[in-house]
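Section 3.1 - Work completed
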Amino acid sequence: MLVLSAAGFHFRGKNALTVTKGDPDAVSDNEDLGPEATAEGREAALRAYPLTPDELPIDVTLNAQRAFASIKARASSGGGAWQLIGPSKATYPGVLNFLGDHDQYVASGRVTALAIGPTCTPNDCILYLGAAGGGLWRTTKALSGDNANWQFISSSFATNAIGTITVDANDPTGRTVYAGTGEPNASGDSEAGMGIYKSTNGGDAWTLLPGSITPPSNFQGRSISSIVIAPNGDILAGIARGIRGYSGNTGGATSNPPPSTAPAAFGVYRSSNGGASFTLIWDVTLISVRGVNHVAIDPITPTTIYAAAFNAGVWRSTNNGVTFTQIKSALNPALNTDRAEFAVNALANGKTRMYVGVGNSSNAGANRARFYRTDDAAGAAVFTDMTTPQNIGYCTAQCWYDNAVVSPAGHPDVVYLAGSFDYDSNGAASNGRAVLLSTDGGATFTDSTQDGDPNHAEAIHPDQHALVLNPNDPLQMFEGSDGGIVRTDGGFADVSYKCDSRGLNPADTALCKSLLSRVPDQIVHLNNGLSTLQFNSISVSSQRPKNNAQAGTQDNGTFQYTGSPTVWWQEIYGDGGQSGFNAADDSLRFNTFFGQASDVNFHNGDATKWVVATGPIVSSPEGSNFYPPIIADPNPTRAGTIFQGSQSVWRTQDWGGDQA
């Protein structure tokens, strides 16, 4: 529900704390501040001494992984053994599901990649899912109710950060799969990867492609945004920036691997020998500070290659990668958050259609996200601006993070725009516009964010990252967001009558009716069994350390562990930063959304009993880290004391006030 911001927060409506996600890399990109500009950065510098954080070689990460593996191998089944304590059913209570049908549902962590097999039937539909920090998962039951029976299949990977998944269309069985590691979505928690993996048996076993970790194509410390397999078997890979290690706070060390590790330059790479080696065919280092975010080949002429790079628009090569030429400019090249996403499809006349959605970190004026189309992408590539009130600003001010354009092969008139979530128009002129669908070549769109239940419509979680379609039905989607994965049923309903009761002016009523004239009949959450929540922190009760803990998560709020390795209940929605318990009475606790916004609870985490505790800090002129340090005094004799760190240290000695 919540999206990152370093700038501020405010309430919209009576329930939702909503914010605008600022650019988590902004501080890291500012070399004047340096890596020690924050407390987190100074701590990193101390750990790195005598090197600086920017100089730490990737070998440090690899050595840490080997050390942990050694400790794990030596651990007996007794005290030293690690156990997964969940959750595999991260459950939102109905009272906190205010965007959907107000019933409880199961969520999961941020989905960054999806890929579907070549066939999809009720009894056999293979779907692969990649998570920001939860690894790679597979189900063969993607159409079976809401219990997909997910399997974790990337235990052999050197990282759980997944950037892209590709099923090789050259293999008719659909069992050849590539996984690119490292998330390319430019957020402060978009963790860098460790290369490209390949499976020839549907994910049962994997091989790390040696060329993906060998200079000059060392993708360790980078993020893989796209993997495309050409008809001749060539592998094309798009390389973008990632964050070295995970950090819940912006600032800290920059995300560039040090030169001593010979990191791959940002750009498009090709392997013609099955991944034994890769060659850079498009170097974007001089035009993009974030790298390539999308790669595709022409559906008619595979020697024509398309690629998009942050703040550089869309480019094309008509000579199999020898040279590239820009065919669609960035919306605002001065912003390194400017991201163009595109989709290509073959037309009946033998030409190629391309759809482009582009925006950046602003949702105002000329920077509002726009939508374009050309019906000759491989030729003249003249784009028509098809931006309308239905689709303008579809990714709000988060296009660098939430942006996907998908057009299913063989259906060039069908196009999906997946963006963030339009809180301003939700429940008014739209249902949130998180996912928009057009079946007339982008001329008109409808809103697929809520389903057609007349009274209690289910909804898609904000912040969209991945979308694939049933190969047998271009109107049935599987969609991944910060809140996990959903599936639609492929049917539609007209709920435009809902607009009549929203108190809109005539223009907004007309817009609302057009958007709600076709919504999914049913949206189904497929998160049951996925242990992929991206945790930011954990706090443990002094009274019940084995079965009472709280944990803050990325965009899924704060959850409570009470001993079940399966079900954890969400205590409070939003972003989840630091949390804590009263040392003498664990019915008293606190949470953090982000920044200086923390609540306290005097009723065992009852989701309806949270009260704002940090108003004086929020109203002060001080700034803070994205997730600032906040801790309860561990001394039971001072159990009402909480310390919070902004630019000063703040203290309450009565648990935020007498609000019991």
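Second construct:
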Amino acid sequence: EDPYLMAEMTVPIIKGIQSKNVATCTKHFVANNQEYDRHWVSSNVDNRTLREIYFPAFKAAVQKGGALAVMSAYNPLNGVHCSENPFLLNQVLKKEWGFKGLVMSDWGAVHSEAAIEAGLDLEMPEAKYMSPENIIPKIKSSELDEKIINDKVRRILRVCLTMDLFNKNRTKPTIDWDKHHALAVKEAQEGIVLLKNEDHLLPFNPEKTKKIVVLGPTVDPTPTSGGGSAYIKPYRQISIFKALKKKAEPDIEVDFINTDRYPVFSKLVEQSIFYATSDLSQTGLKAIFFNNTKLRVPPVFRRIDQKIDFDFGTISPAFGVKSSEYSIRWRGYIKPEKSGRYVFAAESDDGVRVVLDGKTILEDWSDHAARKNFAEVDLRAGKVYALRIDYYNNKGDGIIRFGYGIIDESPLEQKLARIKNYDAVVIGVGFNSDIEGEGHDRPFALPEEQVQLIQQCSELNDNTVVLLTAGGGLDFAPWIDQAKAILHTFYLGQAGGEPVADILLGKVNPSGKLPFSIERRWRDAAAYDYYYPPAVEPPIYSADFSSDPKSITYGEGIFLGYRHFDKMKIEPQFPFGFGLSYTKFDYDDLKLSVKSIRNGDHLKVSCKITNEGKLAGAEVVQLYLHKEVNVLAVEKELKGFQKIFLQPGESKTISFEILPEHLSIYDHVKEKWEVKPGKYQVLIGASATDIRLKGEFLVKP
């Protein structure tokens, strides 16, 4: 939403990663803002909007961060695919910004040989168009200048040499896993945002809150990340429920209620029992491996697997099997102990098919990122069923997990009846790597069953706390009044439930601020009228690789996020930069170093922040600029922020420096950045709508 915030956050992480001799790749360049039909929907963006909104983070990554690689996006930009766009790659990235690293395509994002001269240096995951067969004849016929290829080679070698990849004596670094985990927990503690805290329910008072019940789809296990390329695999993690139970005082009871019909997926995989023979004399499943994706003979390896719980990554799954383009077939039997309705669940990257007694009950036979599929079947106790699982991996990571178990058909009302006996209810809701992944746009609303869960729990217990797991904002309207406290935890990654438990129990004071605005309704969003397909309630989201060129016009221009809400006088559900604390902060004593400047001058701004509460805490102080100039401009825009930690009663003075680049506006007619003369206002606040201090200065011609 905010280009300044993105740029400021991008530079340090690039410098940190590359300081360890690991190259960073900044992606996806550029305007890859929707996943629906992402290969063919052109993002049509005017030049000023590109320069002021979508380019700054990439420019900072290259010029300030020193990023060694940039990845071009799947989508076309103004009708030309980003991997084949000379304006984007040659003119802006390499010429204007002076980028010396390599430009690689996203996987399968090249559609023609135009990429060769457009500025792309590396086609991924293989050379389909930028291949020797296509390039060499062009050089020999003088159709292609060999200097273009030499430049690509130099860029690739420059990255390798900078990272010391050809050093035979390069050693693998020693990693302090405990230290890394502690850092992950600390980062999550500071990033979680307290959105609501009615009657100061949080932190839980240990004298009054002796019984806590935890429920909902994200509390055990707790999702670590979104899906697709955002998916991470923590080496250590604890769920929200288990962390809260572990960290609570001994005299505080913490219980869990599974409100889902299905058992937890990880438990399905772990607890499933298979037999290799029909007489049930041997446990496991017979696995046959093939060096093709079609399960075609001859097989190259056989073995017995007790469980199907594999993350092969990009290595061979078995002796003699390739690291990609392979398939596996498991055969065996199951014998349910109870009669009833069972769920069969599979997570795969890529295709999977499940056949029970000769009938296909689950099929997702296509190339895709890791995702889960479920099927329900009625089974009879004591009967032996023949089972077959087919799987293939084409390119990239290989993942296959499978399990089955009986469904809990108990009415939800029956499960929830006892929560009225608890002092507080903690509900985990939101999304996961399946809903919020890659290749599709996720919905704005929570799943209906999650909304109903919040509403039912609040009717039974007033002290209801909602923990939200998601990568962005969503529709709070149907349930916000039923929640007494709300924490936006985002995706907790390596940290797991530890930081959430710390905040609930008061061991940590929340200090995170929203890096985006959250609208009250989907139709309030700046992009509502410009989303493809036309915005509807609920939004359509689908991965449609139809090869049918389409386009969306970024009609909101520079007015997105809080800029849009300011312009349209719309009150968001939660504003950009918003976040509550267990304490209160006072803003005072704003000072500007001068009252007027000229183009090229710097201006210093300072103010005093005081912790007026009884608890130690941190505040993120935000500086916005309002420009009264003779061109179209936004009401205000972020140009500085600082996080300050204060003990109760403590005051500190913080300072900002306003630079010429903070005052600049891109003149699309002159095609250059300019500082326009006029009156400027400094706005210091706790969010985009909570401005505490104001000051003015003049920019002279």
